[in-house]
Amino acid sequence: MDIQKVITTRRNIKKFKSDKVEHSLITSWLEAATMAPNHKMTEPWEVLFVGPETRAKLNHKTDFCQAPVVLAILSKHGATDLERNENMAAVSCFIQNFMLMAWASGVGTFWSSLGVSAAARTALNVPDDCDVVGIFGVGFPEEVPEAKERTPVERKIKHLS
Q1: Rounded to the nearest 5°, which phi and psi values hold at 2?
Q2: How far is the C-alpha of 99 from the C-alpha of 93, rounded, in Å?
Q3: How far apart are CA 75 and CA 56, in angstroms?
Q4: Predicted model pTM
Q5: Pairing of strands 69-76, 130-139
Q6: CA–CA separation, 64 vs 25, rounded Å?
Q7: Class of residue 79 by CB neighbours under 10 A (exposed 0-12, middle 13-18, buried 19+)
Q8: Residue 65: what are its φ and ψ, rounded to 5°?
Q9: 102: exposed, middle or buried (C-beta count within 10 Å: 0-12, 13-18, 19+)?
């Protein structure tokens, strides 16, 4: 699949098959994701593979859509507010790279923002100097939703003098 097709067909999956996703595949996608731009090569991401006990403590309303794999992806704060913002941007790029790599292999993801809650941070044992950017279900999609309509990009572009 070419990159444009990967980008335009990727969806947030809300129903997964129970089929196992090989750990080696996931780590290869994570390795590729590390090529994300990150200011001053801070490489601020950390990845937590969430096991069954922690997953139960997270108590997500859909149990991450029954995905066979759950990951939490963290961003280190950095020394300043600016560095924290730069790190969050870098981790978001890391996540996008990961999701696109997975999708190119026929594996979908579900992005949950549950990690911002104090209870989730406690369940994940997140250190005070990290943000939880997302908790992700990962697996083979049972269903792929249709794309939601997007605002034409021309309406989002401004030309400055």
Answers
A1: -75, 160
A2: 10
A3: 23
A4: 0.96
A5: antiparallel
A6: 20
A7: exposed
A8: 55, 30
A9: buried
Residue-level pLDDT at 152: 98
Mean pLDDT, the chain, rounded, equals 97
d(CA 37, CA 41): 8
pLDDT of residue 78: 93
CB atoms within 10 A of CB 25: 14
Q: Which residues of 118-130 are buried (b: 16+ CB within 10 A; e: fewer)?
A: eebbebbebeeeb
Both tokens assigned to 121: 């941070």
DSSP labels, 66-80: G-SEEEEEEEE--SS
- Concatenating the DSSP letter of every residue in 18-56 gives -----HHHHHHHHHHHTTS--GGG---EEEEE--HHHHH
Distance CA 106, CA 109 (A): 10
What would the mean pLDDT of 91-114 be, rounded to a whole number? 98
Alpha-carbon gap, residue 8 to 2, rounded angstroms = 10
The answer to whether 78 touches 23, Cβ cutoff 8 Å, is no
